[in-house]
Batch of 4 targets.
Target 1
Amino acid sequence: MMTSLGLLTILPGRGVEGDPRWVRWFPVVGVLLGVCVGVVWTASEAIWSAPIAGVLAVAADAALTGGMHYDALADGADGLLPAHLSRRRRLEIMEEPTLGTFGCLALAITVLSRVFLFSEIAPNVLVTAGLWAASRTVMGIAPAFTDCARPGGLGALLDRPRVARQMIPLLLVGSFVTLGTMAWAGPASAVAASVASLAAAAACTTMLAVRRLGGHTGDVLGAAGLVGETAGLLAWAAVS
């Protein structure tokens, strides 16, 4: 678990092992992050207005992860969204430290959407705990069905053969943690809609990467998780 904490949060963790048994702890790390974000969200709305609480919830999420998934979204958008680029050029763009137009737009739209969604939804720690667990579950599952698009980085650590061996424990832990928290969060229709929306959005992001890169990278996984969470919050706001 300490390896997963080190990979997904700002907390120090153990070194990465050759066999990614640590991936099965992704959902647990996700639920811990979600609880922290939910507590900040709830406490902030008790003190300030809903918009300020929304800003602080998003800020807490970014701070706890070191902004890693937001950076992944920006890099992924710059590489994946332009229409006419070679696979090699897309990968080069995703490695560049500069931020392009597509990355700026994706980051701005996502951050604003999350702020407004946190402002719209009644604070609920179980919602963020469940959705954050589900997004990390998806980030662990995707590499079992897609090839790594380039050597090196987190994407290469989560290569298909090794991650496939962790699928059953990952799915069991992810399902238990996600449904175990969200089942108490609100109506069954809202739970089903939000989890399904999260999975669909993350899958679409991953499939776009497979089509344009030939597989996943660490940036793709981070972007898929963040896009999935946002879609899950959007569905919760619509149905709950």
Note: The chain has twelve helices and no strands.
Target 2
Amino acid sequence: MLVNEAAGTVLRLGAANLEAQLRSAFEQSGIAASLMVLASADLAAAAKAALEQARAGQFDAIMAGGGDGSIRTIAGILAGTEIPLGILPLGTLNHFARDLGIPPDPRAAVAAMATGTVRRVDVGVMNGAIFLNNSSIGLYPFLVLRRERQRRRRHLPKWLAMVLALLRVPRHLPLFPLTVRVEGLAESCRTPLVFIGNNDYQLALPALGRRERLDGAELSIFVARSDSFRAFLWLALRIILGFSQAAHEMRIVKGKSADIVSGRRRLLAAFDGEVELVHPPLHYQIRPGALRVFVPSETNA
């Protein structure tokens, strides 16, 4: 089990306290586990080493503890292999664990792994890098960067830091000239946001941001057509409230792959809530069933 020492639950409970809880949960569930609490930068190397040990028969599974970014790092090592991934949701939002039906309590998550089943789920890929939830270009990566600056300076929770980041968006919404191609269909646009989801996302309340399944083998691409921040917020509000007339301001397409072309040499892109600098053209695709994950027995992931 590989745990990110900077995950929100680790910081809240303390590493020693969490480790004691986990060791007790493993013992109660009849699981023999090796537990490592690591810095974020060391997760990938530790996952690669654990994968080799699993292939040699030393481990049956690898469990990742952290937020969506940490889970993504370790899942990126395991995708395409037969080694199953257990998930311990220790972050703030834990979207992937939530959509899989994994309980947020650490002890309950361990118990769910012990009594659950292994299912195959899809992963999204952009130029070779995987994502479990979604990727986006445009406004959202900039908001994430501003959110993290606010968190570092003021030690704020994520949601409050994001609110402050939204309040500082310039009056003139940045628009990105892009060409989006999805399986033969091409659209050139100036957009504030392109969102690429691993499977279909619910946009309206009460299921906002949730996915009914993670094995539909399809990307969902959303392209906003707003040309001002006010129009963008109004569009977002109407979609969240379920007003279908907002659809003409949001292009929604689905497919197995998508290509995004830009005149810019570099773009900021978000992957599962983490921001990276990427170099167009960007090729997105779905990898059906590429990741084996433990889910509670009653979950249909």
Note: The longest strand covers residues 282-295.
Target 3
Amino acid sequence: MNKPGSMFRWLAVFAAGFVLGIVYSAWRIEKAPSSSPTALSKAEEQPADQEKIAKRIEAVAKMLEKDPNNAQALIQLGNDQFDTGNHEKAVEAYEKALRLDPRNANVITDLGISYRKLGKPELAADSFRKAIQADPDHAKALFHLGLVLRKDLNNPKGALDAWETFLKKAPDHPYVAMVKPGVEQLKQEIAEKKK
């Protein structure tokens, strides 16, 4: 049988350990550097990223004043404008870059995504088709062509063709898990329309 004194000692040790743990945790939090990624919440990190992008946009704009035909700077400007949600300026930068390098499938695809964000699905689909002409294996363009045809242009047959080609050309792409069920749904929709 337990003695009343031993129970009291056990509770005292437990309470002391508990208090020491709280004090130690508070001390560690207070000593943590404010620049530590774990010390910042996502909401606190986002303005820093936006600030970084704004500074980069300013630097690239100055670079383009000196050399307006710098395709890489135009692409970076388009990407940064895209990241800030300014898709009109992204389109402008991508179009200028494509005048210098018209077969850059990555830029053509990003242009298409920007068009889609602006509510211009026909221009988006045209861009994705041009990207695929420039690079028939361009997985991102194939994926987005299927997406815009399916979601925005009500073209299930075109979406199915794009996504089946995507699955053949990019079987290990991260989007495959998303596309496979979409392909099955499209096949069912097309089969039901034929009935």
Note: The first helix runs from residue 4 to 31.
Target 4
Amino acid sequence: MARPRKSRRSRKVVKLEQATGTRKALLYTRVSSPEQEREGFSLDAQENLLRDYAVRNGYHIVSRHIDVETAKSTGRTEFAAMLKYFKDHRSVRILLVEKVDRLYRNMTDYLEIDNLDIEIHLVKGGVIISKESKYSEKFIHGIKILMVKNYVDNLSEETKKGLLEKASQGIWPTHAPTGYINVLGSAGKRIIIPDPEAAPLVIKLFEWMETGEY
């Protein structure tokens, strides 16, 4: 993997900070769902990649932030904590992340990061984005952000289309609500029926609620 390119001024700053031991970095990793986290590969692979990169380049990781949330919308817990850390620690100006879609898939989060005046090291692609980056590098970075946002928007649209089509055919389109279970009906379509174990409990809960005592 090619080493990221730096401007002349950036190279001088790097040499000075390395000599004084001040090149501090923040590490950010993300997966979209608990299922991906339970698989146990993606988060570990991301962190190992970023830590190896930090060692090779003489960066000291002072904070790590891990999200198990989708990046299609704002409000990720550790993403917000990461922003706060950068704002509270002005000596830390380096963010290590695997690639663009691990960091953001919406424009609001991109603007939040862009306003921090930090170096974003997209380690897998060997790219550094900062205020000093060339126009062409920022342009390509912007295109990548739009591409991942378009992917999310298209995936959401296609998912909704598929669920509506299933519902129109009388197929239960998703997981059964509490008190029911998913089964295959006589026509080979997925339907829901009362769960023989949970349904009586749900009925009892509603009966208790109606008494006004609970």
Note: The CA atoms of residues 82 and 88 lie 10 Å apart.
